[in-house]
Amino acid sequence: MRRRRMLGILVSCFVAGLLLPRPLTAQQATPVKPDETTTPSATDRLREAPAGQRITPNPKIEPTRGVGVEDRARESYAAQGVRAGSFVVFPSLESKFIYNDNIFATPNATVDDFILDLKPGVRVQSNWRNHSFGAFVFGNIGEYAQQDNEDYEDLNVLLDGRLDISKDAKAFATAAFNHLHEERGSVDDANSRVPTTYNRYEATARYEHGINKLRFLGGAGATGYFYDNTETSTGLIFSDERDRLEYRADVRGEYMFFEKYGAFVSAEGIDVDYDRRTAAGLLRSSTGYDLRAGALIDFTGLLSGELYGGYVRRQYEDSALTDIGVPIFGAGILWNVTGLTTVEYELTRSILETTSIGVSGILSTSASVEVNHELKRNILLRGVLGYTDSEFRGTTRNDESYDAELGATYLLNQNFSFEASLKYIDRSSTEGSQAYEQTVGSITLVGKL
């Protein structure tokens, strides 16, 4: 009954969008970017490098400069939205048919199944000359053909605002709520009868200011994770010991030596506060910092991005947990090999939270290469290779994960598109029970206005 009620509410939102007045012509209304339907976390936005004095190409003159194939504007295939006063509304509905040959992510006795994944959503964006406000609500409802216990019902709400103080000064605020489920195969999955569900709350604020060749960014945010109790074959698991609040604050400064090359330094502080001790008596609360320095590059618009190095440290309140302090490094590079082919490379190193027994934190190092190719204006091809090394500090466990994905997108018109993908994951582990292989294939129909 609860699933039907949630599905009804989300579909009603989509239908309501269809009934709104038709959009005005291009001469009557300022266009809004139609494909901004993703919802990165507020923390990601907080840590995101500001535009600063980097090159901001004119898309009419240099449509491919510093922009990957997948992100380029395609007006002929972009949803126009519907006008509602000084806002534009973008309803959407994504229907994905999935086959997973190992839904429980186990090394042996694998179980396969088909899944219907529905994502109804509505995005509302202001159409003002100055300032900005947006809201995005979407659901993620999964129905398994055979394993009914694995069904999920996620909900995501995002509010996002920008205050234009002056030409060079802007303030931003973001608030988000997510009701999510924990994926099988995740590090802290308890192998419960049904997927573990949790609520995530997030709020951030930041300020950006530019002064000639200098640009400063400062922000602060808080994120709360609250897990529901879950049941396994041996009894009920109380998840209160996983509940936590994370507080972050960071500052970043950029200086452009030349028009296309610059440097930056950044510092971030973090405080993680767990509600209570674990069943073993451990208190996982910690404090730490993240220091970085790097370079901003733009080689003739063909190769652009940033490189950095630094140091990260996490100190735990409980002496039984091992403190972590290691050098970090990373890169985010976009290479426009040709006008139709883009290669994106990303390298990151970070400390992840976990409640695994005896583990203080996970030192994760990951690298990925993604190739996007525009076969035709409305046919996009994608290939991704990824690698992640996970060190479970405080124990001898070490995981290595490899993944490969092939995908294609066919843009039928402004309102419909088709997508297909095939992904393979291989995780090896010093703990044999945590290793698995998984192949996931999907076909998706996306409808939007």
How would you characterize the overall build of this protein?
The protein is mainly beta and 449 residues long. 5% of the residues lie in helices and 57% in strands. The chain has an 18-stranded antiparallel barrel. The protein has a two-stranded antiparallel ribbon with strand order 9-10. Strand 3 and strand 4 form a beta hairpin. It is globular and about 60 Å long. The model is unreliable at 1-7 and 9-63 (pLDDT under 50).
Helix-strand pattern: HHEEEEEEEEEEEEEEEEEEEEE
Helical fraction? under 10%
Principal-axis shape: globular
Count the helices. How many? Answer: 2
Q: Which stretches of 5+ consecutive residues score pLDDT under 50?
A: 1-7, 9-63
> Which secondary-structure class do the elements indicate?
mainly beta
Rounded to an integer in angstroms, the radius of gyration calculated over CA atoms is 23 Å
How much β-strand is present in the residues?
over 45%
How would you characterize the largest beta sheet?
18 strands, antiparallel, barrel
From the N-terminal CA to the C-terminal CA, the straight-line distance is 29 Å
The pLDDT mean sits at 85
DSSP, total strands: 21
Keywords, separated by commas or semicolons:
449 residues; mainly beta; 18-stranded antiparallel β-barrel; two-stranded antiparallel ribbon; 2 helices
Task: Lay out the secondary structure.
Elements: H1 2-19, H2 42-47, E1 82-84, E2 87-100, E3 113-126, E4 132-144, E5 152-164, E6 169-181, E7 197-211, E8 214-227, E9 230-232, E10 235-237, E11 244-256, E12 262-274, E13 286-299, E14 303-316, E15 324-336, E16 341-352, E17 361-376, E18 379-393, E19 398-411, E20 416-429, E21 436-448
Antiparallel strand pairs: 1-2, 2-3, 2-21, 3-4, 4-5, 5-6, 6-7, 7-8, 8-11, 9-10, 11-12, 12-13, 13-14, 14-15, 15-16, 16-17, 17-18, 18-19, 19-20, 20-21
